[in-house]
Design the sequence.
């Protein structure tokens, strides 16, 4: 029988059952407080209340795991391309180095640029929906994840960056291998080897593209970044990998997690203007991103739990979004919530750069899905991913109607 200590509950999240449905475990954690000390895991503590998650992600004394932190525990990290690539990115940088990288990307990846992408998002959505209609015209099931939820955000960020459409399918398999290694529980040598290979290939791809864009700039994000000359080519390649990953890995699962919830609420078809509120509630109720990791930069105390410098903290954003002290009836899907501010994209200095783009894509495309297929229904049993760091569907069969 599952124990009821925080340690038992967090360990259960690393099991297959915990990945498939973490919410009962989150509810038990909330009954224990806001943070729990851990033993027998790589993490010294887990934090899961909305208040505490928001605070730790904004507190500069809790950092991301950068190269300086990695060196003592993994002295051979430079032999692993996935680690080299990630450590060259803002996702795994702190302080001035993080500010320098993020500052450059914020200059070119602006709200205005996201807004300018809206006609392109609508165009890509229409093209993909026509394709889905053709695949399902005879009543056959179509995998919504493979044929729409992945392709839309991947093509959008691909065109933003300046990647050819024909290369997009290759990226998914490579990024999935890296996400497998980043997951909350999967750290085996075979997973690391696969991630190394994927990172090496993606880095080589980006380095070639950076060289091309420096010689022949175009109207795309990579060209703008190469002209700035504020990053080394390896830093630029690492950040492009992270940007592509962040801009579609969460969005694919936002689209997937949203569809069953929307289909269960037929009123949304006649009130598409409510879609922004529905998207926010999807982000809260069944968020794609459940786990972030932070490192104590000094000996400290986290809501009564002592931490030593260098110890890791698992930050459970999925649990924070179901915190009953922040959200009334947290296990109920309610798009009419007042002050609904899910913490799905993090907070503070490392707030997700792709958040605005993800929201824009969902708010534009999901109404088009429902309008395009008035008889859209779920098909055979969907298959969930076996990850917790990015929780969603591996496949989601649909029937679009004749």
Sequence:
């Amino acid at each position: 029988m599952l124990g009821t200590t925080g340690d038992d509950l967090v360990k259960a999240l690393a099991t297959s059952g915990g990945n498939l449905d973490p919410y009962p475990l989150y509810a038990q954690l909330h009954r224990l407080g806001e943070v729990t000390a851990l033993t027998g895991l790589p993490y010294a503590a887990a934090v899961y209340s909305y208040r505490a998650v928001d605070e730790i992600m904004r507190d500069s004394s809790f950092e991301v795991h950068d190269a300086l932190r990695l060196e003592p525990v993994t002295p051979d990290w430079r032999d692993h391309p996935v680690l080299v690539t990630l450590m060259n990115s803002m996702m795994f940088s702190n302080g001035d180095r993080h500010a320098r990288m993020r500052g450059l990307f914020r200059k070119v990846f602006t709200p205005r640029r996201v807004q300018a992408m809206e006609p392109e998002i609508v165009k890509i959505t229409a093209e993909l929906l026509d394709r889905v209609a053709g695949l399902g015209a005879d009543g056959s099931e179509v995998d919504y994840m493979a044929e729409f939820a992945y392709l839309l955000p991947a093509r959008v960020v691909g065109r933003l960056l300046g990647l050819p459409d024909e290369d997009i399918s290759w990226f998914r398999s490579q990024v999935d291998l890296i996400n497998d290694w980043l997951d909350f529980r999967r750290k085996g040598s075979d997973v690391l080897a696969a991630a190394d290979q994927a990172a090496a290939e993606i880095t080589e791809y980006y380095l070639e593209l950076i060289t091309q864009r420096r010689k022949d700039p175009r109207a795309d994000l990579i060209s703008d970044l190469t002209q700035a000359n504020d990053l080394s080519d390896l830093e630029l390649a690492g950040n492009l990998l992270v940007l592509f990953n962040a801009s579609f890995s969460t969005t694919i699962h936002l689209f997937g997690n949203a569809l069953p919830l929307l289909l269960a609420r037929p009123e949304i078809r006649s009130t598409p203007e409510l879609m922004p509120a529905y998207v926010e509630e999807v982000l809260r109720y069944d968020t794609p991103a459940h786990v972030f990791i932070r490192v104590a930069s000094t000996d400290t105390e986290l809501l009564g739990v002592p931490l030593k410098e260098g110890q890791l903290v698992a930050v459970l954003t999925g649990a924070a979004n179901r915190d009953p002290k922040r959200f009334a009836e947290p296990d109920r899907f309610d798009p009419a919530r007042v002050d609904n501010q899910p913490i799905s994209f993090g907070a503070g200095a490392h707030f997700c750069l792709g958040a605005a783009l993800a929201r824009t894509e969902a708010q534009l495309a999901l109404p088009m899905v429902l309008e395009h297929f008035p008889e859209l229904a779920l098909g055979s049993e969907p298959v969930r991913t076996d990850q917790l760091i990015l929780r969603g569907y591996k496949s989601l069969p649909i029937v679009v109607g004749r």
Notes: The chain has one domain: 35-399. The first helix runs from residue 6 to 13.
